[in-house]
Design a protein that fits this description.
single chain; alpha/beta; Aspartate Aminotransferase, domain 1; Aspartate Aminotransferase, domain 2; seven-stranded mixed beta sheet; three-stranded antiparallel beta sheet; 12 helices; globular
Length: 356
């Protein structure tokens, strides 16, 4: 049975988007590919208001997170975490032999400049954080964090996981001024998983020249050499690139301000539903995600509730990490509209009434 996904990702892909990926295959060293690649880069820059390097490569966003670590950190970084995916960023550093100094923020709270006061010392090569923590539904002010990093150590690189914020929340890419902003196709771009996207600064590419063992697949200097002529370093998922090109046209047609307003509205709808029907949202007010509603489940039997929801053709996500047993999550990003979200929320309310 097919179900409409309101999960944290992958998300539902609309039929016309799937159809856009059925074009005949082309080789990744052809003129046709070069034009496709170049068009995508231009559209990403236009949508996000940036002139940064754009890297496109096969894999989930984690492959570029790990690549940023390998290319930008020789020895030591400051890693900010307020959830499971901040912890994963730390793992990407430590598993690659880097010293990751953790700054642990309580789950449900946003990362704030005050959390790193006095911590970005001269020996810190990079500061890393997640802009929108998928496990807790917290959206931090990345521009404010970045300003504090620069105030303390302007030489420190900045790496930002924007997996569930890019193309849904206005994270103010150029105001952040980060060296790596990393995301993928299977979240707010409403495409299948399999393509990682990175906004990459010249500074981190230059820094990588002095760092040993940056690897091959995510070697930023090699990636830039190819990106500069609109090619991929290795064979990319061409069908996904067709889909991305199609989706970017839709994004630009909607307009980014309208897109951000739509996600704001859906976040408000989810918050009101949680307040009216259960125990509210888990994260602190004022720092709540535009793409993920993390709802306090209270005494709700989530497995029974979710089984009934699936039978009605919908799927959401369980809680994650430390709050897995006390929350569940609704993904409302990408091509989800207030109308389709309202249908889900009405169905959920009906199931709760049936379970009383």
């Amino acid at each position: 049975m097919s179900r409409r996904l309101f999960t944290v990702g992958p998300v539902s892909v609309e039929p016309e988007v799937l159809q856009s990926m059925t074009k005949p295959m082309i080789t990744h060293r052809s003129k046709e590919y070069k034009q496709l690649h170049g068009n995508i880069v231009e559209k990403i820059r236009k949508a996000l208001g940036t002139d940064m390097n754009v890297f496109l490569m096969g894999g989930s966003a984690t492959v570029l997170i790990e690549g940023a670590v390998r290319n930008g950190i020789s020895r030591k970084c400051l890693s900010l975490t307020n959830g499971s995916f901040g912890d994963r960023f730390i793992d990407c550093a430590t598993y690659n032999g880097k010293e990751a100094v953790p700054v642990k923020v309580p789950w449900g709270q946003a990362i704030r400049p005050s959390h790193i006061e006095g911590k970005v010392t001269d020996d810190i090569e990079s500061v890393n954080w997640v802009s929108n923590e998928s496990s807790t539904g917290v959206l931090s002010d990345s521009a404010a964090i970045a300003d504090e990093v620069r105030n303390q150590n302007p030489d420190a690189l900045m790496m930002v996981d924007a997996v569930t914020s890019a193309f849904a929340a206005d994270i103010k890419v150029d105001k952040i001024g980060a060296d790596a902003i990393l995301f993928g196709t299977q979240k707010a771009l409403s495409l299948p998983p399999g393509l990682a996207i990175g906004l990459i600064s010249d500074r981190i590419i230059e820094r990588s020249a002095g760092i040993p063992n940056t690897g091959y697949y995510t070697n930023f200097r090699k990636l830039k050499d190819n990106a500069d002529v609109n090619y991929a370093l290795t064979t990319p998922p061409v069908s996904l690139l067709y889909g991305l090109d199609y989706q970017l046209d839709r994004v630009l047609s909607e307009g980014m301000p309208a897109r951000y307003r739509r996600h704001d509205r859906m976040a408000s709808m989810t918050e009101k539903w949680a307040d009216d029907n259960l125990n509210g949202l888990f994260p602190e007010a004022g720092s709540r995600s535009k793409t993920i509603g993390v709802i306090n489940r209270g005494t709700l039997d989530f497995d029974t509730f979710h089984k009934a929801l699936k039978e009605k053709g919908y799927e959401i996500s369980n809680g994650y990490g430390e709050v897995k047993s006390s929350t569940f999550r609704i993904g409302h990003m990408g091509d989800v509209t207030p109308g389709t979200l309202a249908e889900l929320l009405d169905t959920m309310k009906g199931i709760l009434e049936e379970m009383k």
